[in-house]
Design brief:
seven-stranded parallel beta sheet, two-stranded parallel ribbon, 10 helices, 13 strands, binds uridine-5'-diphosphate
């Protein structure tokens, strides 16, 4: 494959940094852009000697022009419920102005474009598992709306830049993903449970713990995204692991993998927390010949050393 010049926004984030690694491993050159609102330069520290990687500290909500690119991956956004609750206006801006600014770059340089969308587009779904043709059930003014509606607006914008301007666009609807570099303090369930278990603290289960999520290990997700970027599909594609867990089952997997004796404590369920979530991945299977390979237990085992380091860093 011909090496490409690729722009990755959100490159210092959890997914952006893993995506950057995968693109560099394929021989491409990457310009990473991030304003470090929630990203962390530690996620890119291992690339300091890599001549095919460069970094620009910039908020994509403000127009910018880093020069020609062959492909743009738009991954910039706060993404955990705790982060986007703190950064509400910033989340709305990056998912609206930021998306338009990067789409305009793709149009100008005739670059391919892949947007990181989300299962949050489905809101608290009445259709289960979620298929791409389902329009979703989102509260437009609830606490999650700054994220959900920005991502839904972005899907409309990406579709319009394809439909009206012929930009070669792609959209992935990402379901819950975990692995090394997931921020230790961003409030997500896997990072919270792993850190709590390793510190011998109680695992905080919100609500009755019977709500479900389906967790995908990061390398499986990145593989699906790279395949989608090489496809000719312009409508959204779910990428995620279809094996569904209640939060109580998730807690018990974490206790097993960490060997922790932590107890479970129950805390209030956040407003508009989706009761269930599971991707229907038939489209990805057929179109991309993709499916996840790594179970939750294996993925947690692969993530253990990273979370042990996080706990070590917190206690020093
Ligand atoms: N959750 C939990 N305990 C925690 C953090 C989260 O029980 O310490 C629950 C949360 O209420 C939700 C699920 O775990 O039902 C997934 O939450 P997360 O913030 O990881 O992502 P979401 O899928 O809600 O965006």
């Amino acid at each position: 494959m011909t090496p490409k010049n690729i722009l990755v926004t959100g490159a210092a984030g959890f997914l952006g940094s893993h995506l950057t690694d995968a693109l560099l491993a394929k021989g491409h050159s990457v310009l990473g852009v991030d304003n470090l609102a929630t990203g962390n330069m530690a996620n890119l520290a291992h690339l300091s000697g890599e001549s095919r990687f460069s970094f620009l500290n910039h908020d994509i909500s403000t127009p910018f022009d880093p020069g020609p690119a062959d492909f743009i991956f738009n991954f910039a956004s706060p993404a955990s419920p705790v982060d986007y609750a703190k950064l509400g206006p910033e989340t709305l801006l990056v998912g609206s102005a930021g998306t338009i600014n990067t789409l305009n770059l793709a149009r100008k340089y005739k670059a391919g474009y892949l947007h990181a969308s989300t299962s949050e587009c489905y809101g608290d779904p009445e259709v289960h598992p979620q298929v791409e043709t389902y329009w979703g059930r989102v509260n437009p003014i609830g606490p999650r709306s700054v994220y959900d509606e920005a991502k839904r607006f972005s899907e409309a914008a990406v579709t319009a830049w394809h439909r009206y301007y012929g930009v070669d666009t792609h959209m992935v609807r990402i379901f819950n993903t975990y692995g090394p570099r997931l921020q230790a303090n961003d409030g997500r369930v896997i990072s919270n449970f792993m850190i709590q278990a390793l510190m011998g603290k109680p695992l905080t289960v919100y609500g009755d713990g019977l709500q479900t999520r389906s967790f995908c290990y990061v390398s499986d997700l990145i593989d699906g995204i790279v395949r989608l970027s090489e496809s000719s599909e312009h409508t959204p594609v779910n990428i995620g692991n279809p094996t569904e867990f209640t939060m109580l089952e998730c807690a018990s997997e974490v206790l097993h993998v960490t060997g922790s004796k932590s107890e479970i404590v129950y805390e209030p369920l956040p407003q508009d927390d989706p009761t269930r979530r599971r991707p229907d991945i038939t489209k990805a299977r057929n179109l991309l010949k993709w499916e996840p390979k790594i179970s939750l237990r294996e993925g947690l085992e692969k993530s253990l050393a990273y979370f042990q380091d996080c706990v070590g860093a917190q206690s020093t």
